[in-house]
Amino acid sequence: MISVLLEPLSYDFMLRALAVAVIASIVCALLSCWLVLIGWSLMGDAVSHAVLPGVVLAYIFGLPFSVGAVIFGFIAVGLIGFVKRSPKVKEDAAIGIVFTTLFALGLVLISKTPSQTNLTHIIFGNVLGVSNSELIQVAIIASLVLLILIAKRRDFTLFAFDKIHAHAIGLSTLLLGGVLLSLLALTVVVALQVVGVILVVAMLIIPGVSARLLTNRFSYMLVIAPVISVLCTITGVWISYFADTAVGGMIVLMQGLVFIVVYALNTLRARGKSRRKRKAALTNKDSILSPASV
């Protein structure tokens, strides 16, 4: 039985897939904690979709996919910032316009690019096809993102909770926001190989939201979110191997199931507290109105 469960580890492509998936899950989960607090869920969706034309152009010019993805990630962030300058265009509208336009451009480029490489893997992920060089690229980018997140975690946290206070003590909120958006673009590149551009947003949001439901302390969120993400990733990879399903889809499905369980438990706990408070209030009221208290 144990030998059957460990069978995936006997294949090099599964070891690379597992390594890339775990690296991506850790980085995405950590960043998701700040994205959830700031309210940048839609921004994560925008950047993840907007990198598609960059990936296709990178293929056309013979460059690593990560180069094109990073460039267009930054372009998307810049365009969103430029469009929302207009007082008549709200931020959500600017995000929607930019990411749908760039995503559509990517689809057009794919349809017109003769290729022996199946570029649709970028849309849905191709973690089982990760090469050693791609694993190294992902590890380097992920390490850079993690180092910056850890080094500036206090500033990012203050920026997420209270931008006014952060500005008052001398921090540049514009710079902090720009750095976080840059890290978001890099993180999307890390997760591209695992789940593709469509499901990246799930890995950037679900772990942080799940952790937020489990604790009110941000320091605990930074631990809980990666743990949830890694466990879901490993489980998803294992199930996909034996069930012969899409790896990226299974990983996100596991995260979604965990969120449902956490949400249900959190709802039941909140209702239990509410019932106890009502019961205590009624008990106090009865004791005040009882003849013995008169």
Describe this structure in words.
The longest helix has 43 residues, at 247-289. The protein has 13 helices and no strands. Helices cover 82% and strands 0% of the residues. It has helices spanning 2-5, 12-38, 41-50, 52-60, 65-83, 91-112, 121-124, 132-151, 153-161, 163-168, 173-214, 218-243, 247-289. It is globular and about 75 Å long. It has one domain (2-293): Orthogonal Bundle (ABC transporter involved in vitamin B12 uptake, BtuC), CATH 1.10.3470.10. The chain is mostly helical.
Helix content: over 70%
Number of domains: 1
Question: Can you tell me the overall shape?
Answer: globular
- Which CATH top level class fits? Mainly Alpha
Structural class, from helix and strand content? mainly alpha
**Low-confidence runs of at least 5 consecutive residues:** none
Encode the helix/strand succession as letters.
HHHHHHHHHHHHH
Taking all Cα atoms into account, the compactness measure Rg is 23 Å
What would CATH call the architecture?
Orthogonal Bundle
Distance N terminus to C terminus?
72 Å
CATH superfamily annotation:
ABC transporter involved in vitamin B12 uptake, BtuC
* Oligomeric state of this protein: single chain
Strand content is under 5%
